[in-house]
């Protein structure tokens, strides 16, 4: 996303970045995939869903929509316990770290429910095949009401 910075740790204001994208996207960017669109949350740091109009709709998320329904072999015992306590290990979850840092509006969150996607490829967690948008309704409404 245009304006996104890739920094080590959680200090998004850090002057040190470890990665610079070759192409930055925003609402006016011509996407390289047919029948694709970006849904922008209007947050800072910027975040969007990429939605592909195929197979009932396929969304690809970054930090906003997560599906870590359980820890896996890449979590240490302590790490898994801490991630559960912090609210990250939940099915069909709106990313708690992203919510805290990006502070999306209730309208931007609820706008996801108006998108057409049956499947989700989240950056954090497992793929959801079938009914993805509807499965996020409860967590999106909870996050929007905060």
Order of helices and strands: EEEEHEHHEEHH
Specify the structural class.
alpha+beta
Give the number of helices: 5
The number of domains is 1
- Straight-line N-to-C gap: 25 Å
How much of the residues is beta strand, in percent? 15-25%
Low-confidence stretches: none
Strand order of the largest sheet: 1-2-3-6-7
Number of distinct beta strands: 7
The helicity comes to 10-25%
The gyration radius over C-alpha positions equals 15 Å
Shape: globular
Average pLDDT level: 92
**Major pleated sheet:** 5 strands, mixed
Question: What's a concise summary of this model?
Answer:
By secondary structure, this protein is α+β, with helices and mostly antiparallel strands. The protein is built from 5 helices and 7 strands, in the order E-E-E-E-H-E-H-H-E-E-H-H.
């Amino acid at each position: 996303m245009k304006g996104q910075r890739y920094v080590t740790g959680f200090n998004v204001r850090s002057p040190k970045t470890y990665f610079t994208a070759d192409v930055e996207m925003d609402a006016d960017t011509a996407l390289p995939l047919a029948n694709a669109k970006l849904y922008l949350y209007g947050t800072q740091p910027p975040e969007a869903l990429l939605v592909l109009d195929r197979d009932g709709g396929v969304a690809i998320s970054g930090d906003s929509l997560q599906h870590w329904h359980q820890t896996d072999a890449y979590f240490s015992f302590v790490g898994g316990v801490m991630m559960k306590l912090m609210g990250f290990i939940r099915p069909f979850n709106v990313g708690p770290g992203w919510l805290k840092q990006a502070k999306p509006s209730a309208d931007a969150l609820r706008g996801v429910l108006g998108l057409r996607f049956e499947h989700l490829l989240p950056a954090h967690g497992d793929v959801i095949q079938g009914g993805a948008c509807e499965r996020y309704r409860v967590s999106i409404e909870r996050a929007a009401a905060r």
